[in-house]
Fold this sequence. Notes:
Blueprint: H1 3-24, H2 27-33, H3 40-65, H4 71-89, H5 95-109, H6 111-123, H7 127-152, H8 163-179, H9 196-199, H10 211-240, H11 246-270, H12 273-293, H13 300-308, H14 310-329, H15 334-363, E1 365-366, E2 370-371, H16 373-394
Helix pairs in contact: 1-6, 1-7, 1-8, 2-3, 3-5, 3-6, 3-15, 4-5, 4-6, 4-8, 6-15, 7-11, 10-15, 10-16, 11-13, 11-14, 12-13, 12-14, 12-16, 14-15
Amino acid sequence: MKITTRAQLSAMMFFNFFIWGIWFVTMGTYLTKGNIGATGGQTGLAYGTQCLGAIIAPFIVGMIADRFFSAQKILGILHLAGAGLLYVISTQSSFNSFYSLLLIYMIIYMPTLALVNAIALKQISNAEKQFSGIRVWGTIGWIVAGLIIGWMAWEKDPSSLGITYKVGAIISAAFGLFCFFLPNTPPPKAGQNVSISEVLGFDAFKILKNKNYLIFFIASILICIPLAFYYGQANQFLNEVGMESAAAKMTLGQMSETLFLFLMPLFFARFGTKQMLLIGMIAWVLRYFLFSYGDTGSGLWMLYAGIILHGICYDFFFVTGQIYTDNIAGPRVRSAAQGLITLATYGLGMYIGFYVAGLYVDKNQVGETMHDWKTIWLFPALFAAGVALMFLVLFKNERNKLKAV
């Protein structure tokens, strides 16, 4: 791969995830502690917009990216439209208007997760050895977003977190223009006679005929239920228990993710698909137990350990899953298949998870502003343990499928 191509793909990942990370992590704090004054249930609904967007994403990718237009052009158009929406979102003062606009934005944004994967995978010859080195820049983008929030001390006054949406809008506009200069990724089915199911992206569902992939698909949906507790509640939790600059401290998780992304080729050579995925799920169990029993006193190390575990939690399950999906799907339905796994993880699983998390947090509220976090975190810990046990029993080892070469 040319150095210029690698630089373009790395920048693509960086900005695509920076735009998401700059506002997403602190949204729960912004909604509940800022001017909008949302409940836990409403916060869960707000985070659930990403899931509705993810559910729609496979159809957008299947209808457009695989059939009619180059992926990089679609990516640019989506980010230009998203820039305007993010700015308008930053001006809202009621939950209903905030939610409505956010839902539209996430329907536009979530397809970009599959598009950047498809663009990157098109340009590389060995996904196991090269993809993680490009994908890591998305993690770095998320880290930089969190560090900016901590450096600017926006969390000290939650109402000021609205500026994060304006920053996201500016970067989204600039990145949207940049996308048109990315390596060309033409639609793989352009000019071909395809069925309606292929145009709509339904052909990607054929990979579910693979029994092992079906188990993985189901496990992906289920594991994202406890995952949603972290994305939706962790920043609020850390601020409530008194951790200074929580968003900046949470970037330790992305730093850990970065380290493990660089090491993933070694892990692929050592472990098979089942072991990689299972380690990722077990890490979620351990993380939530650490959060449940940790505090900002003698148990501070537990909070940091829980944050740092994010590298294993995310990379071993989600990045491995993306590569596994690419291997099973093949080039013909690559974009649609990435959209399908986005539907399973960021869509169905997290939507259920965000909804349940919001209700569970409200149920365990103590006083007007505090919560029983020990009880809250035990629920996703036990749920993730159950999913890991199911996966261990039902998924057959496919070591050779993802062995690095």
